[in-house]
Amino acid sequence: MVEKPDVGELAPPNRTLMGPGPSDVHPRVLRAMSTPLVGHLDPSFIDIMNEVQELLRYTFRTDNQWTIPVSGTGSASMEAAVGNLVEPGDTMLVPTNGYFGDRMASMAERAGGEVVTVDAPWGEPLDPVAVETAFDEYSPDVFGFVHAETSTGVLQPSVPELTSIAHENDALVVADTVTSLGGVEFRADEWDVDVAYSGPQKCLSCPPGASPLTLNDAAMDKVLSRETQPRSWYLDLSLLEGYWGEERAYHHTAPITNVYALREALRLVAEEGIEERWARHRSIASALKAGVESMGLEMNAPEEYWLPSLNTVRVPDGVDDGAVIEYLLEEYDLEIASGLGALAGDIWRIGCMGHSARAKNVSYLMTALGDALTEQGAGVDVEAGLAATSDAL
Question: Where is the secretion signal located (predicted)?
Fold first, then answer.
């Protein structure tokens, strides 16, 4: 006989989230999640849907009609983008310079596409010359790139140059903006990006569950003219068009509370101003960067490719990366993360995103990190790091 479980009251720890995501959630977003539920076809919710779409257009810097929150985490918006744009017989060009380029490749293969790669080392951005060479060799139908690679802390420069190469070769462009949207400059229309997807839990400081996606007319035309149906019914954009388009017809029950949360998070973006928000992330992250470098640590990404929203710091010789992470969690209720893939064990990934990108969080992090490294016997100058952070702030 199955016994009744004895489960106590929910009481998660109150962490300071400075890892690669999620980031700290603004109190206004949490309050929005506690407001009453309505039906997913209620007239009041349809008004909310319209507002979320307008706010997303502002944040993506686009006029795209087809701009929606996908019901699911960031990987759902990623799969919606790749799985709808790539069909059997298509070729997709993806990068090899990080963990999430590999995920793009996996999704394209599952969609029935042929995957080809443009090579770049982990920790470096794509070289436009290499991209052009790959187009000459493979003639892909779709080109995907990661704007802000969460696994390496590298920001892809020269996006308009990449999109120009793709469009000159009649290919559509998909941009991963999971760790850049709302925190690092990204301009979908001005940079001629056809499709961009993101997650809400990073620079937007919103719980996961409703993930941003935007497609321009050229991309949506390809989706609606497919010869075969996408393999996912749930993420089929030709069906979702009925719910998020003018018809507002039932497709699935939207995560209503998550849409409330995203609306409030995007309101915060608009109130601050998107360009001011980009500047805040750079300013606060610069103080973090100054501190770790003055302490004697090294950044993984070169200065010209540094990603303010996700700072990758090299683990010094003789230091156990996991022990430092565990110490910060146990002693300071502070979360950072280790490396992924080829950089596992070599770096820490320290987020500076959204509501977490605040002066007090960076000061707290530097104090805690200095203590953790001292505990490990690392040869670092904690006082110099704290002074540099304070000066920068």
Answer: none
